[in-house]
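User: Show me a protein chain along with its predicted structure.
Assistant: Here is one chain, sequence first, then structure tokens.
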Amino acid sequence: MRSNIGRLLILVVAAGLAGACASTPPQPQYTPGSIDPAYWVKKVDQFALIGDGSLSMSDKHQKMLKLDITQAVLDSMNQTIPEKDYNGAFVAFGRGECGSSGKTVLAVPLDTYSKGAFGSAIDNFNCAGGNSPLNKAVDLTNADLSKAVVPSSLVIVSDGLHMNQKEVEAAGSLASAFGDKLAIFAVQVGDKKKGTELLKQVVAKGNGGYLINAAELTDAAAMAKFVEDVLLYPDSDGDGVADHLDKCPGTPKGVKVDAVGCPLDTDGDGVADYLDKCPGTPKGCKVDAVGCPIDTDGDGVADCFDKCPDTPKGLVVDETGCVPAGFKVVGEVLFDTNKWDIKPEGQAELDKGVAFLLKNPQLKVEIQGHTDSTGTAAWNDKLSQRRAESVMKYLVSKGVPAGQLTAKGFGPANPVAPNDTKEGRAKNRRVDFMKAN
């Protein structure tokens, strides 16, 4: 009988132990979050983390040392923070940094944030003891951060216990040094009401921070959001400008933008560089959807340069958008004195007219013959007419339609130079090609 009773007691005890083990909550796991740095920009230029390693952190919360929770939170944060060009510092107080009983230690002085440097300091944050000089840690942080009064964030990981108004006053002094450029966040380890109230007062001294319990930061998404709130602004289009400042959201990836997130328009024509097929458009030129100057009459010369708008379609124009009025052929090149037969060396000059007229079949041209003042007016009238007709005959022989041409002599009536010198008379013996009305 005793043997049976003994067996029964063993079974009852075993069942009780099994039940106790089954009811023990699992220790929380702090999983680092994932943040794509391409779609976030800095909210701050510098930040500091403060870790509580005082004596109360040797107590347990949810079957886990509060110091271990603090270390896990800090490590998860460090693994989640994307490396950008902000500065970071890590301050430990109590005996968090082993061997520093009751002291405050600048474990990582303010410098360009390095995941490795923070990781090494957090690995050494594994002792608990001493008093709770959070105010001294805040003062030390103040001395480090205040070297540059720029947008900053402070994160305190603590249970908030065994503290008083000194901590609140220290946070106030730090906030006063930064004005609205400092946000204070706190992660409470444990759930003691006194600690919650103290940390709330500390956080309230900053601008835009908040208090959160460590138990809310166990999963990756929650930790990522917390780090984003502390350090980053969203940049949905990845152009380097935060969404709340971006006046041109949705910019395609890789496009260079200005300070407000709008694609660069170097020539100021209203079409972004990445769409502009005609970069370097002169200021004031109206352009089309791809940034090229508008050419209303389609003559190949942009409206802003076109001195002859509405040129008929198909006409070849010069760089000003105008059909050339004509060109002159000096008489001594084309003809001998008092002759109208075209000299062989003058044909090259006339061939320029042939090329132009063949390109512009719509253009009607009057061939105008001119002479100098030598000889009688009657003779010069006849001579200039014969020269014009001789040139017309040559052009037709080269393929220019006769209907496109007329010939008219002007004698010495329209000199372009004085007739009292040899050179002047040579300039007046000429043939002009002019648009016919």
